[in-house]
Amino acid sequence: MSGPVSVSLLTEDDIPGAIDSIQEAFADDPYHHWIFDDQSKFSPERNRISLDLRCRWGMRNALFHVAKDADTQQVLGVAMWLRPQAHNEPPSWQEWSEGWLLWLQQIGMNLRYGHGGLNVRRYYIWKSAQQALHDELWKDPRGYYFCNIVTVRPEAQGRGVGKSLMKKVLDQADKEGVMCYLESSRAEPNIAIYERMGFYAVREMECDDKGVKVKVRVTAPILRYTYNSPSLRSLYVQYVNNQQPSRPRMRLDDLMLTSLPTFPQYLRVSWDILTTQLFCMMRDSKPVQGDNGSAGTS
Asked: Sheet containing 180-184: which strands, arranged edge to edge?
């Protein structure tokens, strides 16, 4: 008999179960098979050490939540979110030192265990494509909550584990008026699940290694205050794809509606009618002089 699901921040004792959850969830993931292209060389031992380093880094530097069965304390899933960072803001001393520490630890791991089947060329193809997309899409100067890892064990699916994990940070982002972002290399069933949480696919990223490709759907929440109005989803997709929005003088700040409180339920009925007036009321009415400046899963 399965017990209720509890969600808390990751602790030292949770790390082994968190690693099990990540390895199980990504075993059949397209990205995993693309970057570990020769599965005969894949080293689960080396992969566990790499994930252990990442979990410990996440405990210190990210919002790393774990979902557990409240009765058995078995880890059912994990989610790690990177905190938003203001556009063009240099890293703090702690962020800089933590990044170097993780890099040195990974160097030591590679010297001892090798790459464990990791296709290094493809890894850097991925990171390069990911960074280019972030530079293009991350237009809000305040940054984004970035869901870097989210997994649910196969046997725990259907119990609301993923939703409970995501809700922790999504609710926080709503209160702060900050957008969120994630990437998924598995279209089915992930995209439909994320859409029910308020996300919407805005771009497809393709990583190509001499004709061997993997595709990733890039998703972002579309105005969680707007109850996913189709007209506003269309405007947002136009914006991030650098197209001329159908309404003039539109800014990403306006689209985010960060200066408004959560909308009452009655606005759902007349939202499409009210959008034009609301946009005109946002912050100021100065014409846009140009797009805002634009701001990783490995």
From this structure: 5-9, 63-69, 75-82, 145-152, 180-184, 212-221, 199-209
State both tokens at 176.
């702060």
Q: Cβ–Cβ contacts within 10 Å for residue 129, how many?
A: 16
The predicted model scores a pTM of 0.73
Burial class of residue 228 (count of CB atoms within 10 Å of its CB; 0-12, 13-18, 19+): middle
The Cα angle at residue 205 between residues 199 and 206, in degrees rounded to 5: 150
What DSSP string runs through 208-271?
A: EETTEEEEEEEEEE--GGGTT-HHHHHHHHHHHTTPPPSSSS--HHHHHTTTSPPPPTTHHHHH
Q: Consecutive 10-residue runs of the chain (298 residues): their mean pLDDT?
A: 86 96 90 90 93 96 95 94 84 90 92 91 89 81 88 90 91 86 82 82 83 75 41 50 39 34 38 42 33 29
